Amino acid sequence: xxxxxxxxxxxxxxxxxxxxGAVAVLGAVACVVAVLTLLTGHRLRAEQIGDDQAARTEDVxxxxxxxxxRIMLELGYNVLILHKDQDLGEFxxxxxxxKLMPEAYAETLAKSRVVVVRHLLPSLQEPVxxxxxxxxxxxxxxxxxxxxxHLDPKKPMIAAVPKGTMVLGSVLAQKAGLEVGQEVKLLDxxxxxxxxxxxRGNEDDVxxxxxxxxxxxxxxxxxxxxxxxxxxxxxxxxxxxxxxxQITSILKxxxxxxxxxxxxxxxxxxxxxxxxxxxxxxxxxxGRESLRAEREALAAWLVPLVVLGCIVWVGLLALGNVRHRxxxxxxLRAMGVRAGQILAIFLARALVVGFIxxxxxxAVGFAVAxxxxxxxxxxxxxxxxxxxxxxxxxxxxxxxTLVLAPLLSAMASLVPAMMAAQQDPAIVLREE
Amino acid sequence: MLRLENATKVYRRPxxxxxxxxxxxxxxxxxxxxxxxxxxGCGKTTxxxxxxGLLRPGGGRVTLDxxxxxxxxxxxxxxxxxxxxGFVFQQFHLVPYLTVLDNVLxxxxxxxxxxxxxxxxxxxxxxxxTDRADHVPAELSTGERQRVAxxxxxxxxxxxxxxxxxxxxxxxASADRVxxxxxDFASNGGTVLLVTHDPRAAGYAPRTVHMVDGxxxxxxxxxxxxxxxxx
Lengths: 432, 231
Description:
heterodimer; A: about 425 residues; alpha+beta; 2 domains; 11 strands; about 60% helix; about 15% strand; rod-shaped; B: about 230 residues; alpha/beta; six-stranded mixed β-sheet; 8 helices; about 35% helix
């Protein structure tokens, strides 16, 4: 006969008392495991949602920035490259530069690997009178962007005007009564109207764009241009002064006009687009953390309360068990069973109660938490994907449960077990 | 040799003092079957508990083969009981959830032994309980229960059997059987101290001492006094 055999037999005999104790432990363990697992699940899902949100926000932010870049293109962080002797007063007053530069400057700059400069647009721009229409116009010859082989190929910001065609500002087209596809003459040269811009509310409305070579020929300035529009690096940290310095170091007899105000607007727009997305993420994160804090606060009092209730209940059941077995204890003591062995009998029973309750309680608590995880993932509180049982499973929690629950059960039964061990067999046997 | 020398035990309660043992002296040698006869409440059970190392006397001394169990620590005294004394009670005090075999083996909790199972089965055979080995006490007759209790008391091969009204709940045939087993134990060199108020049970013991109001006497006068008080 061993203590464990005696315990096993007694448990089989007093099944109700054992079951009540085990169910109490089961309930407490299930509650604790479910709460802690749910908190883990909440944390994992919050991280998962946070990562997804950050990725989405980054995408949205990039899209917003891209949209802003496109919107701000025409204002863009542009620099205008003119001949160094160009009088800026005259330039602003006449809407064009009188000093000319070789068209080859554009190629030179394109091949120079000036990283901050993108989208080089050489042009020949001059105010003229469209004799055939008797209208003063701004004539711009453009060849589109000059390719920069050292950069990743990008879609051109401004397309070239196909040879033999003409692009017109809206006011000009309206006054001349021209429509797309119509044949028209400009300075005795035939063009087809390829496109008519929407009204822009600036000098573009009275501008005609034609191929650069044609413009050079019409204006009698072959191989010459009077401006290169260079769209600067999109990086907001770029210093405009640095761009100028880079360009003039390559094209010695040029000057660079930096469109600073427009660049600032562009930077602000992009920054605002990015920060809006970040604010959204921050608000969402704060909401999740608030929910998590509420749950942790709930767990902070619920878990100890449940554990304490369980300890009291297991202790009372153990006390009842001791009282029921008073005579048994007396006869065992009379036979010479030592007080320590009596103590061991009751503590071993408590360990079994705690262990059985812990095993089943862990399974129940984990199952509840896993089911809740799936339910919550589909709900509105947090959303997101279910974390999954594999991610929720914490070996440390399992081990801690299987160790602590039996220990707490034994602690709860310690006082009744000591009462049993200290019981005087003589009193019991005399009374019986 | 079980010896009580001037053993005294007084139970004190508020406003009342009960002298359960009053200067009791008794020798019981190995192989001796001694009956202590007396009316209910005369102190017989107290005498048994004191003799069995369960109840420390207020005065006097108890020894078994010269050793006083009350000089030992509680743990050593428990060990002494497991090695030296076997108890049999009127109410049997079997463990209700253990089978007959396990009830007998329960005594081995106190004194581990490699051949406990073998001895337990031998005792069941000796007491004609083999076919009841897997039964629980509730499935036994009272006579069988008392024989199980006796087998349990004998498992650790004690020097002394202390029996407290072992036949009080038994019919005549069962009582004869149990008392016969006690007599066998004594004839095999053990000491039996049987306390009873039943003259028929006491008749099994070659020697009877009488107890009245906590005092032991060997005389007929005391027996008559006891009979009058018992009536």
